[in-house]
Amino acid sequence: MARLTLAEIYSHPVAQKFVNRAGLAHSISTAFHAFRLAKERGVHPDLAVKAAFLHDMGHYQWYNNGEWDYEQYRLHDIHAIKGAERAHKLLIRLGEDRFKAKQIALAVLFHTNSFIPDGQVNRTPLQQIVADADEADEEPGGNHHYRKINISKAWRKIHELDKKIEEELAQFPYENTGDEQRLKTPD
Ligand SMILES: [Fe+2]
C-alpha cells in the first residue's frame, strides 16, 4: 500500500479547516521537531510527523474579554480528545492504514495531560515525541497558535517533510506493529 502523504492529508478541506484554526505554522514546525526526534529515538517518522502535524486539530479558543482564560481551559478543554477523533476520522477517510491511524490518534490524544484528572500519563515513545515536539514549539501565552506562515512556504515545508520521511523509510526498515521502532539502528 502506498504511503498516505502529508500533502494528501493537508489537501483535504477538513485538515485545512482544523489545522489552520490551530495554527498552520505551529503544526508544521511541531512536525519538523517530531521528524528530528523520531530520527534520534528510532521511532517511525511517518507516524511521528503525521501525529505532530495533526496534534492540535481539536484546538478551541478559551477567551474571555480578549484574554486567554486558563481557568476555563483547565475546567472545560478537551482539545486532545476532539483532535484524536478528528485526526482518526480524517485518516480513515483518506485510506490510511487502520493500524497507523490508531497509533496517530493515540499520539494526538496523549500529547497533553491537561484533560487527565491526576495529570499522570505513561507515554509510548511515539506519544512522547509528539508531546516533546509540541513543547519545543510553544510560546508564552499560547502565541504559537497565531504565528503566521505564507501558504506557498507552508506547502514547500509540507513537501519537504514528505521527502524527508520517504528518504528515511528508504534507508531504514521500521516495524509495523506495536509501537513502531526502527529495526536496525544507524551506524
Ligand atoms: Fe500544540
TrEMBL record:
One of its GO terms (molecular function) is hydrolase activity. Residues 23-139 form the HD domain. It comes from the Bacteria. InterPro entries: HD/PDEase_dom, HD_domain, HDIG_dom. CDD domains: HDc. NCBIfam families: HDIG. This is Metal dependent phosphohydrolase. It comes from Bacillus selenitireducens (strain ATCC 700615 / DSM 15326 / MLS10). The lineage of its organism: Bacteria, Bacillati, Bacillota, Bacilli, Bacillales.
